[in-house]
């Protein structure tokens, strides 16, 4: 997502249609490598709103993501955005929480 006033990238992510961390492969986009500018308040929420619209437009039913277990701030943020915990995953040394939001 580009800030129209400054022409700077303020938020972005990779969207995948499959994710090996999930045992079932739902009709979903899987969000990875999410990054946002912490000094641009509200950017993340706006970006997720765009992702929801884009995902629906493409005929998907869910947005899914995972986050590092123990990052309570991020866990609370994703819960506030409507993502529900669906399980856990382990990928080498990474221990994550799987979350999804039904659209």
From TrEMBL:
Gene3D superfamilies: 3.40.630.30. SUPFAM superfamilies: Acyl-CoA N-acyltransferases (Nat) (SSF55729). InterPro entries: Acyl_CoA_acyltransferase (IPR016181). This is N-acetyltransferase domain-containing protein. It comes from Faecalibacillus faecis.
């Amino acid at each position: 997502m580009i800030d129209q006033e400054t022409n700077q990238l303020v938020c972005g992510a990779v969207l995948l249609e499959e994710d090996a961390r999930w045992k079932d492969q739902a009709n979903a986009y899987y969000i990875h490598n999410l990054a946002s500018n912490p000094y641009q308040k509200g950017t993340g929420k706006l970006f997720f709103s765009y992702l929801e619209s884009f995902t629906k437009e493409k005929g998907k039913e869910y947005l899914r993501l995972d986050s590092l277990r123990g990052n309570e701030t991020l866990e609370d943020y994703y819960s506030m955005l409507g993502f529900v915990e669906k399980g856990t995953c382990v990928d080498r040394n990474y221990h994550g929480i799987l979350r999804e939001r039904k659209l």
